[in-house]
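The protein record reproduced below.
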Amino acid sequence: MNGLVRTGAKSFLRAYARYRPPEIDRRLTSLGAVVGRADRSLFATADLSRHEQRVFSQNGEDGVIIEIFNRIGVTNRHFVEFGIQDGTEGNAVLLADVFGWSGLFIEGDEELSGLLQRKYADTAVTCLCAMVSASNVNDLFASAGVPTEPDLVSIDIDGNDVYVWDALTEFRPRVVVIEYNSGIDEPGPVAQPHTPDRGWDGTGAFGANLAALDVVAARRGYRLAYTDLSGVNAFYVREDCWDALQVDRVPRRSQNYGLTGIRQAPAAPAGGWHPVK
């Protein structure tokens, strides 16, 4: 499966020789690291942290996503990502821009969505301007022609992520990458109250803890494969793909209070933390 990585290198060079020149050197270096790691095939260790590498992702998600698909394989090479902003940074940008995947980007801000649509005009990527919620996520996927089992879904909406995933009952992605709040200091599975019209207010009182995601994952038929070193994203793989992943133990990250610029666990949101069952 190492061809998954190598086949995009030439298109990357062509496309990005004219795109964001100040970032070319960094991104070429990062892409080279991803390719090199895949070519060396680090199956000697099941530790996915060895594969963290940033090309277009916020942290090391790019390298982890590539390695997961190197292990479990790809099917339709289709992704969905929402909370993508203008498309210069995201978990599926590498797949779209370098490896030629088809997919769907959803962004709720009209100006940012316009930038997305211009960037991906005349490509296999569809861009929608919409606010994703638990009540509309299945309809949005269906309206964009998303296959029932896309290879990847990435969820990052700074709040109602766990509720949206739980509501995604008509689609079964093989891999789910979803943001969680590692700063929540609660023993059980909890999340912010489900407030579809509430965006992130800049505080630490948002989202869900990892235990809450695990509850939804078990209900949806997924297992936790990895949590990134920054304590921001969790990676889940569908049960039927699990054996190929060759992961024995997933470390739990320590609380990351630095994400919101605070030095202690965040205060509870209005209405308190809600248990997720």
